[in-house]
Amino acid sequence: MNRRPWAPALTIVLLWSIHQGLAHAVAHYEPISVFMASAGMDRPGLALLCFALLASRIVAIFSTAPLLLLTVVQGWRSLHSSPARTNADDTAPSGLLRLQTRRAGQG
Amino acid sequence: MRRLLLLLAGIASLWLPGHALRLDAPDWVSPTGARAPALARALDTQLRAELGEADFATGSRHIDGEWWLATYAFAILGYAQLAEHQPALRPELQVTARHALDQLLRPEVRAFDTRQWGDDMLDCLDEDAHDHVVLGYLGLGLGAARLLDPALPEADLHDRVVTALERRFTTTDAALLLSFPGVAFPVDNAAGFATIGLHARATGRPLSPELEARIADWEAAFMSEDGLLVQTAHARTGHATSPVRGSGTALAAWLMSYADPPLAARLAEGTRDTLGATVLGLGAVREYRPGTPGRGDIDSGPLIYGMSVSATGFALGAARGIGDEAWAGRLWATTRLFGAPGPDGRFLFGGPLGNAILLAALTTPAADTTDSEHS
User: Fold this and answer.
1) Backbone phi, then psi, for B288, in 5-degree steps?
2) Any domain includes B280
3) Residue B116 maps to a domain
4) What is the extent of the structural domain holding B269?
5) How many domains does chain B have?
6) What residues of chain B, 49 to 108, have a C-beta less than 8 Å from chain A?
7) Residue B373, pLDDT above cutoff 50
8) Residues B154-163: contacts with CB within 8 Å, 24+ apart?
């Protein structure tokens, strides 16, 4: 996990890109709302697009908060477990520092 | 460390979205907010497109027509309320409302009602052969347009509509005026009361004692003790033919804020306290009482775990009408999530009717709900 601190941030960007793309697609087709499309069922393509946008919106909004948190924490951890720091710590006399370095390496 | 991280991420995913969705609420719901004017302009663009009965595609030609008429009526209501909040926009909104009113008064827009009764609701205002209580929705648009422009050329027509509704309400022996032959909805009668209330506000005339008595009878006959409204009833006897429901109650709570604010407060509090729910900071309204089984229909919209799309949208207007900003904020978070406001200000999932209802709901002024008889 520590080796990919950019992964959560990239996931956020991808999710919002998908969401924005779908939003523009739905706006382009002048929807008559999910409710009306699903009630009438005479425009199934539009209904499908609307539901895809809704699903992407819910996923994007509800996953952004934990992903942001992961981005920040992983970024912070990567700074504190960089190879240069690890080498430096490895030569330190403190057994605690060596233990921390090993743990960081395992993560 | 990893477990702590996952725990924090879990808490964040539960707590943050509901709060994040409310961050821009002031831009929408405050008198000086910038988003409501954008929504009004986007709605105007939608209404100036070639809009027709067929554009609503509900599966019922009759309901398509109802929604077409309601779109213009709620749009004008929203424009008028926005102008009250932001007077600098009044000239622009008068032009916008003028177009919507011209559309609202086209015979084709009320043809769904004409097909049902066999006569035009505006051609028989001086006689009471038919109830035509749907006139209440058309009257809302007229009343709002008059609030926006006191010198409205259609002021005489507005007066005649209100006179007809009030006369029919106060002279009938039936418990309800009919929406259509053999069909009576208490909430459609509430729209008639709202039209008369809005007329009173526009002209400075108080409601008559006879109408106030009629509204009191309506409350006694169709509202439960906990403030919920039956959806349908037998017009003559007043016998309920359906259970109390969220969509009718929330819409009535909103509409009655224009005619009888204390009664609106009782309906809104019933909606909030008995049918309201909050999940992850998002507010919603159930269609049926907890434990009462029921299916979604054209009135409720699709039910998601028992929560009604229509009831939740109407409740936003009800919450604003009674000045319950905390409840309005929770409902707003849900509207923000599922309505998907786009960059131009309109809600992508709204369609013309949804956007018109949301503009009117978001701009609904808080009424004085104090009532010496009930409080």
Assistant:
1) -120, 155
2) yes
3) yes
4) 43-362
5) 1
6) 49, 55-59
7) no
8) B154/B101, B154/B105, B157/B105, B157/B122, B158/B199, B158/B202, B159/B199, B159/B203, B160/B125, B160/B126, B161/B122, B161/B125, B161/B135, B161/B195, B162/B195, B162/B196, B162/B199, B163/B125
Chain A neighbors of B20, CB-CB under 8 A = 61, 64-65
Domain membership of residue B251 (yes or no) is yes
- Angle among Cα B231, B237, B238 to the nearest 5 degrees reads 25
For residue B371, the model assigns a pLDDT of 66
Nearest Cα neighbor of B271 from B346, B321, B212, B216 is B321
Q: Do B55 and A1 touch (CB under 8 A)?
A: no
Task: Please enumerate in sequence order all residues whose Cβ is within 8 A of that of B296, keeping only pairs 6 or more positions apart, or say none.
Answer: B287, B302, B303, B308
pLDDT in tens, B185-237: 999 999 999 999 999 999 999 999 999 999 999 999 999 999 999 999 999 99
Instruction: Spell out which residues of chain A touch residue B15, defining contact as CB-CB under 8 Å.
Output: 65
- pTM of the predicted structure, to 2 decimals: 0.87
Phi, psi of B119 (to 5 degrees): -140, 160
Tell whether the model's pLDDT for residue B79 goes beyond 50. yes
B117 to chain A, any CB pair closer than 8 A? The answer is: no
Taking CA atoms, what residue in A is nearest to B349? A33
- Whether residue A50 and residue B17 make contact (CB cut-off 8 A), yes or no, is no
> Per-residue pLDDT for B299 more than 90?
no
| Residue B12 placed within a domain | no
Calculate the alpha carbon distances from B33 to B166, B244, B334 in Å.
37, 36, 19
Alpha carbons B360 and B15: distance in angstroms, whole number: 29
Smallest Cα distance from B349 to chain A, Å: 4
- CB of B10 within 8 Å of any CB in chain A? yes
Contact between A107 and B2 using a beta-carbon 8 Å cutoff: yes
Instruction: State mean pLDDT over B273-297.
Output: 92
Q: What is the CATH number of the domain that holds B287?
A: 1.50.10.10
Percent of chain B past pLDDT 90, that is, above it, reads: 74
Q: Which residues of A touch B349 (CB under 8 A)?
A: 26, 31, 33-35, 50, 53-54
Q: Kindly give the interhelix angle for B61-85 and B90-104, rounded to the nearest 10 degrees.
A: 160
> What does R_g of chain B's alpha carbons equal in angstroms?
20
